[in-house]
Here is the input.
Amino acid sequence: MVSRTLSAIGLLFFFFAASPAFALDIAGPAPIQYTVSPENPAPNSTVYIQLDGIGNILGNSMIIWSQDGTVVAQGYGLSSHSFTMGGLGSQTTVTIEVDSATQGAIIKTFTFNPSLVSLVWEGHTSIPPFFAGKPLASPGSMITVFAFPTVHVGGAAQPASSLSFQWRLNDQAMPAQSGIGRSSFTFISNQLHQSEDVSVSVYTQNGTAAGSGSVTIPLTQPRLVFYVHDPLRGILYQSALPNSFTMPGTEVTVRAEPFYFSTSGAGGVQYSWQINGEDTSGPNTAQGELTLRQTGSGAGSATLSVALQNTDPAKLLQAAQSTLTVLFGQTNASTGLFGL
Here is the structure.
């Protein structure tokens, strides 16, 4: 009988000793909550710190704000403070002391190292050779975003290979492309979107937030631009043809150059040519070129149109059409224009 009672007492003691969660629940929330905005400030930016307390703890307390060891503000109920960050490589320490009659002295210290995270993107889309602009993103195209962080810890610049990059697309976490040293992010844009929002949070090796960046990427509809293909000088990319074009002679080769069509994925692109509403073709029309030749003498005009369609089933919304009015010869109603 005695041994059973002792065993029961032993079990009861073990139950309470092995249940620390019970004690933690009694403690309740911290008496003061701190809100820092922004959490990862840029150089020379303004930082705001706001205190929120339980009950009237802040209103009845002397609050002392110190910056880099110097008191910069103090007063009863002084629950907010702002300051300006230094430049890259600097460090700012803010200490908050709340002298509460009921809770005693509550001290909190924040250390800020200003950082920059620049994001640069490009679409995996078509542009002409030597084009001065970058390939823009189009609906359904692949896009790559590159992060260029400038992060200092203890005055020392941190290489991108040692930092952790956590990517988000349209506010959805992308864990498969996140991690240490993963400073680029590649994805395929949604065909039905007008833009894509990409953001990244950067952390040091010990898990400290080091910076963040975000960018909104507009999605541009693909288009076709006409150029002349000169037999001696090649394609004259330096000067696109206007809507109305006068032939310099009796024959000219016109190139329909695709802009911002996806260069990745299955399938390809398919051209469709028309002259005055009638289908036409030539030896190089599938490659985006048509040779126009005047028949007879005199002058006239013709409407040249071309359409381009992405044949990838996942990119069927990538399409473009362009029209060109071609003027040729002298005044004579018996002339015509043929595509070759």
The domain at 223-339 is CATH 2.60.40.10 (Immunoglobulin-like). The two ends are 111 Å apart (CA to CA). DSSP finds two helices and 27 strands in the chain. Residues 1-26 have pLDDT under 50 and may be disordered.
